[in-house]
Amino acid sequence: MRGLLLVVLSLLIISGLILPQSVLASHGRVLGAKSENTRVDLVTTQGPGLLLPSSPLYFIDLWRDNLMLFLSSFDKEAQAKLHLKIAGERIAEVKMMLEAKAVSTRGLDIALFSIKENVDGAAASLKAQKNKGKNVEKLSSELNEILGAQKESLRIIARAYDDKISFKIKASVRAI
Asked: In whole angstroms, what is the distance from residue 94 CA to residue 96 CA?
């Protein structure tokens, strides 16, 4: 029985690393939010991960993200893009938790911290590329466009919820 459990757990972890994100998570307009008849989606197509920050098993999602970041550490351009992809996934998770009314203060704090941490990671990867003497103007422009869309998504989410949640989200946007 224990062997079967290990095999199943191994398959779940491996599938989270290998299968395309589109198979594992909802995509498309997960982040769309209506605000004065306007819908804003992220520039990228990522959706929330398999687990939400309010889940006790969320560490598995973080482990998968950290492993993917480690594997991309040799290509700082890809790593910067991955950081923003993960930040977008966290935004989708915030939206999903709020819509499902499954938000906990701890879960929201974890997601917002992860957003900031990944935006900072993208900036560090971009700086590393620049320090190597690479031209990063195009990458910087691309990342700024994605980040702008992500910040706007957070602002729309903040407008839709009560003062406490809204304040935390707005503070996170300012910190980015």
From this structure: 5
For 17-75, how does the pLDDT look when each residue is reduced to its tens digit (9 = 90+)? Answer: 443 333 333 333 333 333 333 333 443 345 566 688 888 888 898 899 999 999 998 89
**Angle formed at CA 145 by CA 157 and CA 64, multiple of 5 degrees:** 70
Say how many C-beta atoms besides its own lie within 10 A of residue 14's C-beta. 10
- Whole-number Å distance between alpha carbons of 77 and 80: 5
Contacts of 151 (CB under 8 A, 6+ apart): 173, 176
DSSP E strands, the chain: 34-35, 38-39
DSSP annotation of 53 reads T
- DSSP helix/strand/coil, 8: helix
Categorize the per-residue pLDDT at 6 as very low, low, confident or very high, splitting at 50, 70 and 90: low
Number of residues assigned to the chain = 176
Say what the pTM is.
Answer: 0.68
Contact 158, 103 (CB under 8 A): no
Q: Which residues pair with 38 in a beta bridge?
A: 35
Tokens at residue 161, please?
């919820």
For residues 18 and 37, give the distance between their C-alpha atoms in angstroms, rounded to a whole number. 38
The amino acid occupying position 65 is D
